[in-house]
């Protein structure tokens, strides 16, 4: 059994390797800390407006969400919450895969699945937030929610 030596962090080999490209691990680490702090603010604001202010959880329905998303402030708030939370979670999953997946092929497949699912959920979630029309123009007015009235 031979012992491999790891070069000192500030050695010539380590400096040469770290000088190439972007240090994704460092930026991922910074992102997790910054997004975590911002997410705490966004989540507690979201919970306060949805559960504490007004009539609580019994008031949350399609009309509540549609009314909330009629205000551009809440559209931006919920979009930021969606993006930060999904990227924060996928970055955490990426870290777990890098730590525990020892087979390079399995690691590549898992990282691809994380990236693909994150991208799909970001696109679909953003589309829902920005394209929701609670009162579309349709022929049969009886199909519309009660708060829309006759168009």
UniProtKB/TrEMBL annotation:
The chain crosses the membrane at residues 30-53, 73-97, 109-132. It is found in: Membrane. The keyword Membrane applies. Keywords: Heme, Iron, Membrane, Metal-binding, Transmembrane, Transmembrane helix. Its main location: membrane. GO terms for molecular function: metal ion binding. InterPro entries: SQR/QFR_C/D, SuccDH_FuR_B_TM-su. GO terms for cellular component: membrane. This is Succinate dehydrogenase subunit D. It comes from Glaciihabitans tibetensis.
């Amino acid at each position: 059994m031979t012992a491999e030596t790891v070069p000192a962090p500030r050695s010539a080999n380590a400096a040469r390797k770290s000088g190439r490209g972007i240090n994704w691990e460092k930026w991922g680490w910074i992102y997790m800390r910054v997004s975590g702090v911002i997410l705490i603010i966004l989540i507690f604001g979201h919970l306060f407006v949805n559960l504490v202010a007004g009539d609580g959880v019994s008031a949350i329905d399609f009309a509540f969400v549609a009314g909330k998303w009629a205000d551009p402030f809440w559209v931006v708030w919920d979009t930021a919450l969606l993006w930060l939370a999904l990227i924060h979670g996928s970055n955490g999953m990426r870290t777990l895969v890098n730590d525990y997946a020892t087979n390079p092929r399995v690691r590549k497949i898992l990282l691809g699945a994380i990236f693909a699912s994150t991208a799909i959920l970001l696109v679909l979630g953003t589309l829902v937030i920005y394209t929701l029309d609670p009162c579309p123009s349709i022929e049969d007015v009886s199909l519309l929610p009660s708060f829309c009235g006759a168009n």
